[in-house]
Amino acid sequence: MEKRTLIIGDVHGCFKELKKLLKKVAADPDKDRIIFIGDLINKGPDSRKVWEIFREMKATSIMGNHEYSLLQLTQGKFHKHSKYFDVLRKNFGSKFDDFVEDVSQFPLWLEDHELMMVHGGLVPGLHPDQTDPWHLVTLRTWDGEGEDLKSESNPPWFDLYTGDDLVVFGHWAALGGVNLPKVIGLDTGCVYGGALTCLILPERKLVSVKAQKKYAQI
Fold first, then answer.
1. CA-to-CA separations, 134 to 67, 95, 126, 204, in angstroms, rounded
2. Domain contains 218
3. Three-state secondary structure of 107-134
4. Does residue 151 fall inside a structural domain?
5. In what order do the strands lie in the sheet with 109-112?
6. How does pLDDT run across 99-146, given as a tens digit for each residue?
7. Read out DSSP for 59-77?
8. What is the pTM of this model?
9. Count of alpha carbons within 13 Å of 139, Cβ hemisphere only?
10. Total count of domains within the chain
């Protein structure tokens, strides 16, 4: 029997929903390959508990924009996500440095046979190794230049995707998930009162659990 790959959407600290989802899909770290699409942290109730579950599940994670900005903040660079920094440091306590060390190992993308995983999206016509890391973690729409990554007057990046690999991404909660032949979006807005979603491969099954409450405004 082929080993399952479980890819989990943006958790944002929603540890109760994560536990429920892992139970619902009968996740087994000894039998399944478990991958998070990024943004394990911030906005939700307990980022540290999410990280503890992540470790328990022997999981891998793509770098999300929240992890990427955390690394920038630890290097002393200013970022709009600085408002989350003190909360995270307090939440993780003595484990903060261990967590940052873990995050520093997160890849910006994962490529596997006919599967590509990235948090934000792919710049049309470019492989991730040719792409600005900031684009990989924050891309939503494409203006042809890479200057404005989220204007609704521009097309979603995936409308311009012409590759053969199945691309799985997160980051864009407002869409409520995407399920196209070659593109699957897993951010179904759990922290905003939506749901937390897992993609099971190879059968390409989507499984969700509803958020227990709305933790943040979208």
1. 11, 26, 14, 28
2. no
3. CCEEEECCEEEECCCCCCCCCHHHCCHH
4. yes
5. 109-112, 115-118, 166-169, 183-185, 178-179
6. 999 999 999 999 998 999 999 999 999 999 999 999 999 999 999 988
7. -EEPPPHHHHHHHHHHTT-
8. 0.96
9. 29
10. 1
